[in-house]
Specification:
- By secondary structure, the protein is mainly alpha-helical.
- It has a domain at 1-128: Serine Threonine Protein Phosphatase 5, Tetratricopeptide repeat, CATH 1.25.40.
- It has 50 helices and no strands.
- The protein is flat, with a radius of gyration of 39 Å.
Length: 1004
C-alpha cells in the first residue's frame, strides 16, 4: 500500500524498483520506508535477485542506492546462513566493491553507513568466517577495488593497510568498526555459533585499535576534527562491547586501554571537548574498572588543569554550556570515591573534586530552573556519604577512627550548609515565572537533598542537628524567612532519627524554646506562607518531643489554631493539629474548653470544609479520650456530637428541598466527622494499663457507658445514622458509616462508640443487593463476628443468626458468584467467620437456615468452579475449614452434621478441585486450591476414591496428549502418598503444567 492506500505491486525489474522508490519515498517517513522494504523483500534470493540488488547500487538516485543496501541487509538476515561458500564470497566481494567505489566517488553518509551495516550483517550471518574484515576493507580501499581474502597476506599489519587512506575512507572504516562492535555485542556469547564470532573479535580488536589510534594521531586541525570525533565514537562502542564479554581477558582489553592517552587528548581540544567529555563520562559511569591507575591519574590532571577553569567560569556566568564539564567532574569523583574520601592530601583526586562539587552547590541559580548540576551532584554526595557510613559501621567499636574521619566531618558540615542554602525557596517573582516542570524539579531536589541529609545524620548525629538548629535561629534573628523555612524543612526530614536520640533533647529545647512559634503565629508579620506551612509540619513531626515538654504546647497549639483560619495553611494545620493532639492528649486536657470554643469560631470561617472539620474534630476527641473519670467525657463529647448533628439536620433539610448534591455533601461530612471522633476516642495502643485506676470497672461491675447517662450518649451517636435514610444510595456515606462502626470494634473496654451488635445487624438488614459499597458493610459484619468469637467476648448468637439470614438472601438474589464477584466473596467470607464458634447457626439441627443450607453450599461450589479468583479463594477457605474443623470447639451434633455434609459434597468438591488443577484454573490459584485438597486427603478416608473418580470422569478437562491414564494415576498416587505434606504444592503445579502443555513430558 502507498501513502494514499493504493496497492503497490511487487517490482519485477530494476526499472520497476527505481520507479517504486521514486514514487513512494518521502524523506523522513518511516511508514514509506517500511512499505518499500516490504516490496523489496519479495525479490527472491537467487543469482538474479543478487544481480538486481547489485545493479540498484549503480542507480543515479541516492534513495534507490540506500534501499539497495537495505535489500542486501534484509536478504542476509533472512537467508545468509543458507548461502554456500562460493555465493557468500561473491556477495562479500560485491559489497566491498561497492563500498570502496561509493566512498571514492563521495557517496553520502546515508548510503555508506547503510552499507557498513550490511557488511556487519554479512559478518554475523555468513556461513564463512570473515577473519579480518577491517584489514580486508582497508586493503581494498588502498588498492582501489575489492581484493579477495586469499589475494593478500592475512598477517599484514593494519597500519600498512591504512597508509595513504583519505579522511573519508578512515571515517567509513570507523563507522564499520563501531557498527561491528555494536551488533556483535548484542549477541549472546554462550552459544556455539555466536561464540566463534566473539572469539574472532579478539583478533579484530587489534585492527580496530590500530585504526582508532591512526585516527587520533591525525594533526589537530579542523579538517581532521571529524575523523577524531568518529574515532571517539568507535572507541566508546568497543569499550561498551568489551565490558560484558571480556571481564577476564586483560590481553584483549589492553588494546583498548592503550588508546586512553590518545583519546584523552581530545579533552584538550575545544572542538572535540564536548564529544570527549561524553565518552569519558560514559565509561566512568558504566565501566569504571576499564581505567587503570595511570589513566585515572591522567584524567585527574586534565580535570584540574583544563576542565576546572572552564567549569568555574561557566558556573559564574550561569552558562548552560558548562553542564558537560560538571557532569565529567561528578562522574570522575564517583568513580574515584575511595581516593576522594580517604586521601585528603591528594590535591588532584580529593582537593579538586571536593572543591568543584562545593562550587557547583555555591553557584547561583535554583535547582530545577537554570541549575541542573546541583541536582546531578546529589548522586556524588550520596556515594560519598554511603562510603563513609559503610566504613563507620564495618569497623569494631574499639577500633580507632581512620585518620580521614575528621576531614570527612568537616566536608559534610560544609555540605549541609551548602545544601541548606540551595534549598531556599525562590521569591514569588521568580517562582511565578516557573513552569510546572521547573517547580517539580525544585521540589524533587529538596526531597533528594533531605534524603542525603538523613544519610549524613547517621555519621554526624547531634552535631548536624545542632548545626541546623543554629542555622534556623540565626536566620530567625535576621528575619530571613526563606532561610528559616529551608532549615525547618531539613529538621522535619530528620524527625524520626532525632526523636530516637535522647542526647538531642537539649538541642531541640533551643529551637522550641525560641520565639519561632510566637513569631509565625503573629499574622501581622509578613512571613511567606511556605515558612508557616513548614513550621506547621515540624509540630506534627516532633509531637513526641512536645508531649514530653508540655511547656511548649501553648505557643505551638495557638499557632496551629491561628493557621487553621488561613486559607493557604488550613489543611496543613488541620493535619498537624490531629497529629499533635493525638500525641499530647494528656497534656492538653486543661485546654479542652478553649479548643471547643476555637472550633466553634473556626466553623464560621472560610477554611471550614469537610477535611479540616474531620481532622480537628478527631483531634479534640483524642483530648476527650484522655479525660478521667469516664463521666468527664460526656459534656465535651456531646459538644462534638452537636456539630455532627447539625450537619445531619442540614443534609435532611437539603434532601427535603430537592438539593441532592448539598444533601450528599453534608451527610457524608457528618458521618466522616463522626468516624473521626470515634477514631480519636480510641485508646492509644502505646498507653500502658494502670491496674490501680479506680475508674476501670471491676469484674462483674457495669461500665459507666452502660449507665443511663452513658447510654444517652450512645443514643445520640446512633441517631446520626438517620442521615442514611436520605443517603442510602451514596457509597461514600455507606463507607463512612462502616468506619463509625469499626471505630468501636477496635476497643477492648466499653466506650461511647462500642455500640450494641444489633446496630451493625440493623445496618446490614437495611441493605439490598444493589446497595453501593455492600462489600464494606459485609466486611464490617465479618469484623463484628470475629470480635465476638474471642474467648473473653460475649457470644451473639441471635445477631449472627440474623446476619446469616441476610447473607442467605443476598446469595439467593445473586444466583451465581459471577453476577457480582465482590459481593459474592464478601458473603462467603461471612460464612467463613462462623467457624468454629458460630458453626451451629448454620449447621445445627435446630438451625433456622437448614432449609437454605444446600443453596449456600452449592453457591460456594460454583465459586470454586468459576473464573473469579476472589470468591474462589474464599470458598476454598470455607471448605478447608469444613473438612478439618477443630475437634474441641464444635458440639457433637454440629460436628456430625458437618461430617455428613462433607461426605455428601466430597465427590463434587473433588471433581471441582481436579478440574481446576487439570488446567481450567489459573497458575496463581494453585496454592489456594491445594489447601482443601490437602484437607481432603488428610481427613477423609474416601478422598482417594473421590479424586480417582474425578480424574477419570468425563468432566475432566481436555488436556495435553502427554497426560494420559498413567500420568493421572501417578499424580493420584503422589497426592495420596504425601498426606497433605507441603510438597503437595509442587506435585500439583507439575501436573497442572503438564495439563496445560507447558512442560515437555510428565511422569517419565
Amino acid at each position: 500500500m502507498n501513502g494514499t492506500g493504493t496497492s503497490v505491486a511487487a517490482p519485477q525489474s530494476i526499472e520497476e524498483v527505481e520507479q517504486l522508490v521514486k514514487r513512494l519515498y518521502l524523506p523522513g517517513s518511516p511508514r514509506v520506508i517500511i512499505q518499500i522494504n516490504d516490496q523489496l523483500q519479495q525479490l527472491q534470493l537467487s543469482a538474479q535477485g543478487w544481480q538486481i540488488a547489485d545493479a540498484l547500487l549503480a542507480s543515479s538516485d541516492r534513495n534507490v542506492r540506500f534501499f539497495a543496501a537495505l535489500t542486501f541487509t534484509v536478504k542476509l538476515n533472512n537467508d545468509g546462513a543458507t548461502l554456500d561458500a562460493e555465493t557468500a564470497q561473491s556477495v562479500q566481494i560485491r559489497l566491498i566493491s561497492w563500498l570502496v567505489r561509493l566512498v571514492r566517488d563521495g557517496e553520502s553518509a546515508l548510503v555508506t553507513k547503510k552499507l557498513c551495516s550490511t557488511l556487519t550483517t554479512y559478518y554475523l550471518r555468513s556461513p564463512v568466517l570473515w577473519k579480518r574484515p577491517l584489514l580486508h576493507i582497508a586493503s581494498s580501499m588502498q588498492s582501489g577495488d575489492t581484493l579477495p581474502e586469499a589475494s593478500f597476506e592475512m598477517g599484514r599489519a593494519m597500519v600498512d593497510a591504512l597508509h595513504g587512506l583519505s579522511n573519508d575512507q578512515i571515517v567509513v572504516l570507523l563507522w564499520f568498526s563501531g557498527t561491528l562492535a555494536d551488533e556483535v555485542g548484542r549477541m549472546e556469547n554462550n552459544t556455539p555459533g555466536h561464540a566463534q564470532l566473539h572469539t574472532q573479535m579478539e583478533v579484530i580488536v587489534q585492527d580496530a585499535s590500530t585504526l582508532i589510534a591512526t585516527a587520533f594521531s591525525r594533526s589537530a586541525d579542523d579538517a581532521n576534527a571529524g575523523v577524531k570525533a568518529e574515532a571517539l565514537k568507535s572507541f566508546l562502542t568497543w569499550v561498551n562491547y568489551a565490558q560484558p564479554v571480556w571481564p577476564r581477558k586483560p590481553e584483549s582489553l589492553e588494546y583498548l586501554r592503550q588508546l586512553v592517552p590518545a583519546a584523552s587528548q581530545c579533552l584538550l581540544d575545544r572542538t572535540l571537548q564536548r564529544d570527549a567529555l561524553d565518552v569519558f563520562r560514559d565509561i566512568l559511569e558504566s565501566y569504571t574498572s576499564f581505567f587503570q591507575p595511570q589513566h585515572m591519574q591522567l584524567l585527574a590532571h586534565i580535570v584540574t588543569e583544563h576542565i576546572q577553569p572552564v567549569l568555574l567560569q561557566a558556573l559564574q556566568d550561569k552558562d548552560p554550556e558548562g553542564l558537560p564539564y560538571g557532569q565529567m567532574v561528578i562522574a570522575f569523583g564517583d568513580a574515584n570515591i575511595q581516593q576522594v574520601v580517604e586521601q585528603p592530601d591528594n590535591a588532584e583526586r580529593c582537593g579538586t573534586i571536593i572543591k568543584l562539587h562545593f562550587d557547583i552547590l555555591k553557584a547561583p541559580g535554583y535547582p530545577g530552573d537554570e541549575d541542573e548540576l546541583s541536582v546531578q551532584s546529589i548522586e556524588f554526595w550520596n556515594t560519598y556519604v554511603e562510603y563513609v557510613n559503610d566504613i563507620t559501621f564495618s569497623k569494631d567499636s574499639d577500633d580507632p577512627d581512620p585518620p580521614w574521619f575528621e576531614y570527612a566531618r568537616s566536608v559534610l558540615m560544609q555540605l549541609v550548609e551548602l545544601l541548606w542554602a540551595k534549598m531556599w525557596t525562590p521569591p514569588n517573582e521568580v517562582a511565578k515565572e516557573w513552569t510546572d516542570a521547573e517547580s517539580e524539579a525544585f521540589r524533587e531536589f529538596r526531597l533528594d537533598a533531605t534524603d542525603l541529609m538523613l544519610s549524613i545524620y547517621v555519621f554526624r548525629g547531634k552535631d548536624m542537628l545542632r548545626q541546623l538548629v543554629e542555622l534556623t535561629l540565626h536566620s530567625l534573628e535576621a528575619k530571613q524567612w526563606r532561610a528559616v523555612e529551608a532549615a525547618l524543612f531539613c529538621l522535619n526530614a530528620l524527625a524520626d532519627n532525632v526523636l530516637e536520640d535522647e542526647p538531642s533533647e537539649p538541642i531541640l529545647a533551643t529551637l522550641f524554646g525560641s520565639s519561632l512559634f510566637r513569631d509565625v503565629a503573629d499574622f501581622s508579620l509578613n512571613i511567606p506562607s511556605q515558612a508557616r506551612r513548614t513550621a506547621i509540619d515540624i509540630l506534627g513531626s516532633y509531637g513526641q518531643y512536645i508531649e514530653r515538654h508540655a511547656e511548649y504546647l501553648p505557643d505551638t497549639v495557638r499557632f496551629l489554631f491561628a493557621s487553621l483560619e488561613t486559607v493557604q495553611l488550613a489543611n496543613t494545620a488541620a493535619k498537624s493539629i490531629a497529629s499533635l493532639c493525638s500525641t499530647c492528649r494528656v497534656s492538653l486536657t486543661s485546654e479542652l474548653d478553649g479548643f471547643l470554643q476555637q472550633y466553634q469560631r473556626f466553623l464560621g470561617g472560610p477554611t471550614s470544609d469537610p477535611y479540616t472539620k474531620e481532622k480537628v474534630l478527631g483531634a479534640i476527641a483524642a483530648i476527650v479520650q484522655a479525660l478521667r473519670p469516664e463521666s468527664a467525657k460526656v459534656q465535651p463529647l456531646l459538644a462534638l456530637l452537636q456539630n455532627v448533628e447539625k450537619d445531619v439536620q442540614i443534609a435532611k433539610q437539603c434532601a427535603a428541598d430537592g438539593e441532592a448534591e448539598m444533601a450528599e455533601t453534608m451527610g457524608v461530612t457528618a458521618l466522616t466527622c463522626l468516624a473521626s471522633i470515634g477514631k480519636g476516642l480510641q485508646v492509644p495502643e502505646d498507653i500502658p494499663i494502670d491496674i490501680y485506676d479506680e475508674d476501670e470497672p471491676q469484674p462483674g461491675q457495669p461500665s459507666f457507658w452502660d449507665s443511663q447517662e452513658g447510654q444517652a450518649v450512645q443514643q445520640r451517636i446512633m441517631g446520626c445514622f438517620s442521615v442514611l435514610q436520605v443517603l442510602g444510595n451514596n457509597g461514600d456515606a455507606i463507607e463512612a458509616a462502616c468506619l463509625v462502626l469499626k471505630s468501636g470494634f477496635a476497643e477492648v473496654e466499653p466506650g461511647p462508640f462500642v455500640l450494641p451488635p444489633s446496630v451493625t445487624v440493623s445496618f446490614l438488614q437495611q441493605c439490598s443487593i444493589n446497595t453501593p459499597q455492600l462489600e464494606s458493610v459485609l466486611a464490617t459484619t465479618c469484623i463484628l463476628i470475629t470480635q465476638h468469637s474471642k474467648s473473653n467476648s460475649k457470644r451473639i448468637d441471635h445477631e449472627v443468626d440474623a446476619i446469616c439470614q441476610q447473607v442467605a438472601n443476598f446469595i439467593q438474589q445473586l444466583g451465581r458468584p459471577s453476577t457480582d464477584p465482590g459481593v459474592a466473596q464478601s458473603c462467603i467470607d461471612v460464612l467463613c467467620r462462623l467457624m468454629p464458634h458460630y458453626a451451629h447457626i448454620l449447621f445445627g439441627e435446630a438451625s433456622a437456615l437448614s432449609s437454605r443450607l444446600q443453596p449456600l453450599l452449592d453457591f460456594t461450589m460454583q465459586a470454586i468452579d468459576g473464573q473469579d479468583p476472589f470468591p474462589k479463594r474464599s470458598a476454598q477457605d470455607l471448605w478447608t475449614k469444613l473438612i478439618k474443623p477443630p475437634s474441641t470447639t464444635l458440639p457433637d451434633d454440629v460436628r456430625a452434621r458437618v461430617n455428613q455434609i462433607v461426605t455428601v459434597y466430597g465427590p463434587q468438591l473433588a471433581q471441582t478441585l481436579i478440574r481446576q488443577i487439570g488446567g481450567l484454573g489459573q497458575r496463581s490459584e494453585l496454592d489456594y486450591l491445594c489447601e482443601p485438597l490437602k484437607a481432603l486427603v488428610t481427613n477423609q478416608p474416601a478422598a482417594k476414591q473421590w479424586l480417582e473418580a474425578a480424574l477419570f470422569s468425563e468432566a475432566f478437562p481436555r488436556v495435553s496428549a502427554e497426560v494420559g491414564d498413567a500420568q493421572k494415576r501417578r499424580f493420584l498416587q503422589q497426592i495420596v502418598g504425601l498426606r497433605g505434606d507441603r510438597k503437595t504444592k509442587d506435585v500439583v503445579k507439575e501436573f497442572y503444567a503438564a495439563c496445560r502443555g507447558t512442560v515437555v513430558s510428565y511422569g517419565s
